[in-house]
Amino acid sequence: MEMPACCRRQLPVLLLWVNGLMTLGFAGAYQQTRLCNESLMLEKLPVCGKSFEEMMKKVDSKKWCNLTEFIMYYDNFTQCTEREANSASCFWPNPLAEGFITGIHKQFFSNCTSDKVHWEDPPDEILITLILIPVMLTCAMITLVVWCSKRSDIL
């Protein structure tokens, strides 16, 4: 199918116009115009920490390393820190908020160690199958492309 000549000439102009709109932020991108009030954010973040601390008192300290026991509390804490950072016109996460969150992690999760996962190779039959399927699909696609390019009179 051949495009009309007028459409071919107007297409680059349209693409440049759309690119210009996206570059200027008219395509839905939000540009922050206010400066971050870091001192206000640092005043508000401890409220989130206190709230999280109160919620964590409900959880047995032996279960603090089990995320399923307090995931809702942690989600509330995360949303609180994000809300407070945004109310101070700061992006989230930012270095100050991350430092505060790291302090909370040290307070509650310093005794939680991650067990080293011992990775093992799958059995040879599965490994060979996982390797051969993409190789065969790649070969089939290359063959199909070459065959179709030689048979352009039909397409």
TrEMBL record:
GO terms for molecular function: coreceptor activity. The keyword Lyase does not apply. The chain crosses the membrane at residues 12-30, 126-148. One of its GO terms (cellular component) is receptor complex. Coiled coil: none annotated. Signal peptide: none annotated. InterPro entries: RAMP, RAMP_sf. It is a single-pass type I membrane protein. Belongs to the RAMP family. PANTHER family: RECEPTOR ACTIVITY MODIFYING PROTEIN RAMP, RECEPTOR ACTIVITY-MODIFYING PROTEIN 3. This is Receptor activity-modifying protein 3. It comes from Eubucco bourcierii.
